[in-house]
Amino acid sequence: MTELNAIALEGVVKEYLSHGEVVQAVKGITLDIAEGEFFSLLGPSGCGKTTTMRMIAGFEEPSKGVVRLHGQDVTNVPPNKRDVNMVFQSYALFPHMSVWDNVAFGLKQRKTPQAEIKQRVGEMLEIVDLAGREKRRPREMSGGQQQRVALARALVNRPRALLLDEPLGALDLKLRQAMQIELKRIQREVGITFVYVTHDQSEALTMSDRIAVMNDGLVEQLAGPREIYERPATAFVAGFIGTSNLLAGTASGGTLELGGGKVLVPDRDGPVTVTVRPEKITISTDKPGGDVSAVPGTVAEVVYLGTYNSYAVSLADGAEVTVFQQNAHDSTTTAERGDSVWLSWQARHSYAIGS
Amino acid sequence: MRSRGGRLGDRLLHVYTWLVILWLSSPIAVMIMFGFNDTPSKSNTSWHGFTLKWYQQLFEISDLTTALRNSIYIALISTVITVVIGTMLGLALGRHRFRGQGATNFLVFAAISTPELVMGASLLSLFVSANLPRDAITITIAHVLFSLSFVTVTVRARVVTLDPSMEEAARDLGATTWGTFRQVTLPAILPGVLAGAMLAFALSIDDYVVTSFVNGSTLTFPLWIVGSVKTGIPPQVNVMGTLIFGLGVLIAIGNAVAARRRT
């Protein structure tokens, strides 16, 4: 290893005793998070992402496995002695303290000299755009401002890594989108490793360098946003990230016969599930030529959605395929409800996935 | 535009409100007034003109002064003990899940709903069978017992409104367990703790029923007053009552001002 990872999890398991039964919230996770990376733990509620983060922060002790921060084993180190800081979903600001005292809290615990506290808190409030509001109490501020106080309170300590537990969950859509860009900017500015827990796939795709998609206590796929979206490793990832069509059948000789059409599945034989994204599919009335995947179907529904049209197309075997068509030139639709159409896509746009 | 009927209703509500306030405050008004009564005899029940002499002769009756001093000491000490134990209980019940929690909650409620007579009588038998001499100490123990539940309930009510992540945030920012309690938890529950302390003090300083069982030969302010009913309550009692009431009003005002400053 030439460079130490900011965070490393090695075979981490977390078990709880619930009504006399052992429940595994995290079933064995091994991953490395690089220095300066924006890393997301993405998954539905109950998938173990928050538990995983709490083990990194030190609020939960793993039942098995090792947590390392910069190569150092911190598995049994309490949270106040770990060089990471957390932004809580509820912000967890101290209601009886001013914004200034909230942000200065961590530095005071460390017995930082008064002059340095003054300088660093001031700088940090500048970065999160809260200069001039030092004397406010948290409850006098809007959700977005409280969010930024929480962020400043954690970042001012210059932790080796910042952990964020669904920090934008309580904000409305517009503010959430603005804060996503803001978070990314702050991360670039301070250059600290961010570990971000979210169930919102678009949030994870927007901000992350890498994403670990979690389900049922395990990591289903760990890759960059583009790869997670374009090449989902499992049916779960395909279904959880964006909209995805799953076509199942038995392939032979690199082709999957499907209701009078064919799906190209290079190097595959036997039972297979193929995933293809709705926006990759072209809809046409004539059978397309050339070396593409093409299946016939009947339009069951057309929905106009402004920037694009969404088609639901029924295949001969009863499967329904969703197709998005951009409203690039005019808003006329290629097909109407009840029309017989052909769906086609490039072979490289569909993937055979694990079960 | 509001209707005539509505305006009449408003006016009636106004009158009714003032009647209730008058009714509630009349005993206090009478107590304060008779502290200024220039009564010639021992009985202080009819008006004889205004005087300030009872304020000058406030501590003339040495038994009464001793009784008041006992009451104040007992109230202060039992309040401190009650607040410490009650705050810990309230925190435990409001924050944590533990074996025996249901039973503890039930006990807290039971202590509030037990009639004072029953509590006094059973405490007396307990102290007698434990061979404890009845004095200021047994009175203090008894006062801690009956005010503990009130402090617990007040603190617990405050604790459950707190964001449980707040203490984790303090730990995360480097505070020790004790540092977290001192800098974050205690200030956050302080309004509940102070309210509990005032309740405990108020319950203690005017308790008669339970105290009368466990006092032995020690007299407190309420016990002395009840004992002097037959011979006539001297105006000094009114003056002391007025001063205690005035202190309570000052604390209430201070609390209201502090609450306004906090928001």
TrEMBL record, chain A:
Enzyme category, top tier: translocase
Keywords: ATP-binding, Cell membrane, Membrane, Nucleotide-binding, Translocase, Transport
Cellular component terms per the entry's GO annotation: ATP-binding cassette (ABC) transporter complex
Database matches in InterPro entries: AAA+_ATPase, ABC_SmlMolc_Importer, ABC_transporter-like_ATP-bd, ABC_transporter-like_CS, Mo/tungstate-bd_C_term_dom, P-loop_NTPase, PotA-like, PotA_ATP-bd
Span of domain ABC transporter: 7-241
SMART domains, A to Z: AAA
Pfam family name, one: TOBE_2
Superkingdom assignment: Bacteria
Molecular function via GO: ABC-type putrescine transporter activity; ATP binding; ATP hydrolysis activity
Gene3D superfamilies: 2.40.50.100, P-loop containing nucleotide triphosphate hydrolases
PROSITE patterns (alphabetical): ABC_TRANSPORTER_1, ABC_TRANSPORTER_2
SUPFAM superfamilies reported in the protein's UniProt record: MOP-like, P-loop containing nucleoside triphosphate hydrolases
Alphabetical list of PANTHER family matching this protein: SPERMIDINE/PUTRESCINE IMPORT ATP-BINDING PROTEIN POTA (PTHR42781), SPERMIDINE_PUTRESCINE IMPORT ATP-BINDING PROTEIN POTA (PTHR42781:SF4)
Family of the protein in this entry: Belongs to the ABC transporter superfamily. Spermidine/putrescine importer (TC 3.A.1.11.1) family.
Protein role: Part of the ABC transporter complex PotABCD involved in spermidine/putrescine import. Responsible for energy coupling to the transport system.
Name this protein carries in UniProt: Spermidine/putrescine import ATP-binding protein PotA
Organism encoding this protein: Nonomuraea cavernae
GN (gene name): potA
Automatic annotation (TrEMBL), chain B:
The keyword Cell membrane belongs to this UniProt entry's keyword annotation: yes
Keyword Membrane: yes
Upper lineage: Bacteria, Bacillati, Actinomycetota, Actinomycetes, Streptosporangiales
Protein name (Swiss-Prot/TrEMBL): ABC transporter permease
Membrane topology term: Multi-pass membrane protein
Residues of the ABC transmembrane type-1 domain: 68-255
Any Gene Ontology CC annotation: plasma membrane
Family designation: Belongs to the binding-protein-dependent transport system permease family. CysTW subfamily.
Organism encoding this protein: Nonomuraea cavernae
